[in-house]
Specification:
- Two copies of one chain form a homodimer.
- The model of chain A has no long low-confidence stretch (mean pLDDT about 95).
- Chain A is an alpha/beta fold.
- A seven-stranded mixed β-sheet of chain A has the order 2-10-9-8-5-3-4, sandwiched between helices. Chain A has a four-stranded mixed β-sheet with strand order 1-12-13-11, covered by helices on one side.
- Chain A starts with 11 loop residues before the first strand and ends with a helix.
- Chain A has two domains: about 110 residues, Aspartate Aminotransferase, domain 1 (Alpha-Beta Complex), CATH 3.90.1150; about 240 residues, Type I PLP-dependent aspartate aminotransferase-like (Major domain) (Aspartate Aminotransferase, domain 2), CATH 3.40.640.10.
- Chain A is built from twelve helices and 13 strands.
- At the A-B interface, α1, α2, α3, α4 and α9 of A face α1, α2, α3, α4 and α9 of B.
């Protein structure tokens, strides 16, 4: 019987996530499994909450990792907040805005969208106009659109909602850990992220955070959350308080990995981490420019960690990505949705965002394009 | 800044899960992360499907691990099958039957239950009588009730449903990997399990399997599954077929762990694994008997992997468990629900089911009781 795990060789992960994982995070995953109610493990849970609060710049007590990937975090935010026919506004300029629309619609919300051209950001003035016409229970936007490489103006949108009863939901899957997020200052009420992007931890967990206003809205629900697994009123009893009530068995070893990933970011320093992302982004843009490969997104709203580039004319998309992976052990991402076959997505997320990776990719691209 | 992970010391996990994890499974978790669409990774996904099908004795194509813990598997089975007002019968004789009832009710099903005394099994004749009165879309039962240590008569219930249109859903969270499951022979249509019990992999994944009849029922839905994250019609496109469509990013390193855990069971041999569970169960019962500690469940329907025992008179439940953990580095489980404070739950699951662990627990219990 052959053990396929023996064949796994390291790949430089320069796609839209997962990103390269630091050896100490991989080592953390293989620490001995503790019980999910062991006081030693609960200390680690509490520490993770503190780490997340620090990095999200929030005082929200309800700041925890959900036991699923980033999309479970999206599901969790919507399913806890939405009841049938709740009016919801979703700002859409890529695949992940569309996914929000799908999730909220399935839950019975009255979903409206404001759509913006792919590769361009949400325009705050247009949102403002829409909000003057109608009031919504929640407004949702993706901070870093992983499908296009665009940064949306989260603080500006937050400003529009600050003195209203409307809750503000932000997808921070790709931004968290790679660029500034100030949850409380920016008026964000609900936020979800993933571990496999700029936190550079393998996929499997979704950090979420809920403001007191969001928690009050959950507590004011008329109906039970139609999702037992993601019901925050139950999950809170496991993650908070002096005595912890069993809900589901937490993914213990994955949480070790997340602790270590957050530890590394705090040790390096947030500012330094963000600067490292920007520096390597600039290094990449320059290298690609010299090769005649052009960025999709205007410099004013480009993401440092997700670089969308046009596939050069006459180049075979799939063949180049396959050669990069097989010959050079580098993974870059394909286009999604409208951008499939037209762009590549080059990730510089977390531990991937290093000069040696940028240089290796540039050199390799030259040989395969 | 202190790194809490340095403090983690191994614990012999003899509670209701997580169980002790084999060193090679822990090592598998820390293999380099691959991309979720990397052909090498897809080979591992395909191998996991084959391993699961082999161990569940099923030909079901839709046999995959869900990206969440066992309770996510429960949620997945119900949310994909149930539409509003579907009649559902749940057989309840412990916490996990009650959880099924809660999950199904939240999803709008017309839920009826048949309740049996905690610590005793579901009675097939009573179920048969109920099924003659009314027809249900699905009947659900827990194979191994983790809250009481009872084995329910799954083959007998399956027999009642074989020539009907009623789907048969089985919770195999605690049984899978520790006792026989023959999904196809027993007429099971939907099954979910968890990784942290007899598979001895850390928590975080939930193997599920769906029969062709269950898949047809999903395809015949009138409404979309109200849970994007767990919608099997979308998940299937990632786990099946020649080209794999991105849905959510799979928990890659956890899947390495699951592959290795299943590999170990297949290498040892199913029969040998089940015998090892029975042998160590008998060894434990004998040792406890000598100490005057009595089993909750009659020998005819006891689980080998989850031993519910009455807390001896005058013994302080929490204090003893705490001393076992602190002084002897052994974890056993408390009672849940009706049994809280009355019983202990001693797990002999997967890699925990070894004579040295039984002997260590017996010796330690003598010093702390």
């Amino acid at each position: 019987m052959k053990n396929l795990l023996q064949d796994i060789a390291p790949v430089t992960l320069m796609g839209p996530g997962p990103s390269c994982v630091h050896p100490s995070v991989l080592a953390a995953l293989s620490k001995p499994t503790l019980g999910h109610l062991d006081p030693e493990f609960i200390r680690i849970m509490d520490a993770i909450k503190t780490q997340l609060k620090t990095l999200l710049h929030t005082e929200n007590d309800l700041t925890i990792p959900i036991s699923g990937t980033g999309s479970a975090g999206m599901e969790c935010c919507f399913v806890n907040l939405i009841e049938k026919d709740d009016p919801v506004l979703i700002l859409v300029n890529g695949v992940f805005g569309m996914r929000m629309q799908d999730v909220a619609t399935r839950l019975g919300a009255q979903v409206e969208t404001l759509e913006f051209e792919w590769g361009t950001p949400v325009i705050v003035d247009v949102v403002q106009k829409k909000l003057k016409e109608k009031s919504y229970k929640l407004v949702a936007v993706v901070h870093a659109e992983t499908s296009t490489g665009v940064q949306n103006p989260v603080p500006g949108i937050g400003n529009l909602l600050k003195d209203s009863d409307t809750l503000f939901l932000v997808d921070a899957v790709t931004s968290f850990g790679g660029m500034e997020i100030r949850m409380d200052d920016w008026g964000i009420d609900m936020l979800y992220s993933g571990t496999q992007k700029c936190l550079s931890c393998p996929p499997g967990l979704s950090p979420v955070s809920f403001s007191p206003a969001a928690v009050a809205a959950i507590q004011a629900r008329k109906t039970k959350v139609p999702n037992w697994y993601l019901d925050l009123s139950l999950i809170m009893n496991y993650w908070e308080g002096a005595t912890r009530a069993y809900h589901h068995t937490a993914p213990i070893n994955m949480l070790y990995g997340l602790f270590q990933a957050l530890f590394l970011i705090l040790e390096e320093g947030e500012t330094q981490v963000f600067e490292r992302h920007m520096e390597n982004h600039r290094r990449l843009v320059q290298a690609l420019d010299q090769m005649g490969i052009h960025m999709v997104v205007d410099a004013s709203c480009r993401l440092p960690m997700l670089n969308a580039v046009y596939i050069p004319d006459g180049v075979d998309d799939a063949a180049v990505r396959s050669r990069l992976l097989k010959t050079h052990k580098i993974e870059i991402g394909a286009g999604l949705g409208n951008f499939a076959g037209k762009i590549w997505r080059i990730g510089l997320m977390g531990h991937t965002a290093r000069a040696e990776n940028v240089d290796k990719l540039a050199a390799s691209l030259k040989t395969v394009c």
